[in-house]
Description:
Layout: H1 3-17, H2 29-38, H3 44-57, H4 61-65, H5 69-76, H6 83-94, H7 102-106, H8 113-124, H9 133-143, H10 152-165, H11 171-184, H12 203-207, E1 223-234, E2 237-242, E3 253-254, E4 257-260, H13 262-267, E5 275-281, E6 285-295, E7 305-309, H14 320-333
Parallel strand pairs: 1-6
Antiparallel strand pairs: 1-2, 1-4, 2-3, 2-7, 5-6
Amino acid sequence: MKKDLFYHNLYSWYEVNHRILPWRETQDAYRIWISEIILQQTRVDQGLDYYLRFINRFPDLSSLASATEDEVLRLWQGLGYYSRARNIYKSARQLQSMPTTFEGLRQMSGVGEYTAGAIASFAYNLPYPALDGNVYRVLARLTDCEIAFDTTQGKKHFHQVANELLDRHHARLFNSAIMEFGALYCVPQNPDCEHCPLQVFCEAYAHHTVSLLPVRKPRPKIRQRYFIYTIYLCEKQVLIRQRQDNDIWRHLWEFPLEETDETTFAQFRPQTSAHLLLTHQLSHQKLHAHFHIKRVTVLPSLSECKTVSIHDLDDYAFSRLTLRALEQLFPYFLK
């Protein structure tokens, strides 16, 4: 491959087509770190608002370190993959300043090789590749590679390919450009290969295999789970508890919960008109949930539960599933 021509074509496309995003307008390692963690499992259009709110509340490392974990989780509410928020908070509490080396960045909680490479290149222009799903797709097509990118072998292989292709003198520009190219042009379905500025370098185009790449390992079987939430309501007060188990939504708040089996769940009949049946899809789990309001004269004494006013619920971080239920059931709280 003629790398100089590859870089020229890629950078020319990027100059004309790239999106203006706040984390691209800075070399502040802290802000770049926050953006990279948010975007690990989140589309740019969804993550942008979360990034702006997060940076507005925690503009630097010290402000984040002085917060509580509940505050951080509350700001992350609805974004999912809450371990990301817990790792951000843990790192902020441990650091005096942002690391300035790849090795230092790798020591941060929740920062893997890709994220460290991205921060190192975007903040310090250090010569490390940055790989996300978009880059894996571009590299798989450029090299017509059938190795599943989300396996140990695939990650090692594509990291080597990216490292060899990297423009070591302009790492920041290269990583930004190839990520953006994958996001906007070399898209999963029906890319415009006929007018692609990188067509001459693309082996998949030459071999007519673009639509087959990249290859992903088989998806695991989706686990089905069945939740029954009871919202005990007494004079505009309810019970909530904080999840502590090593499970989904750890440290988020919820209403008293009984997890049951499919048969019991199907037979459940709440004795109230104030109830909901919702489903919620996670990466490897599908949740089926009943939410029902149970009006009582005295709130029961339940282990690990606390009493809060319905008007203070916004002070607590809930899962997106519970937020959906609250949006629909809140009018019943006021009756």
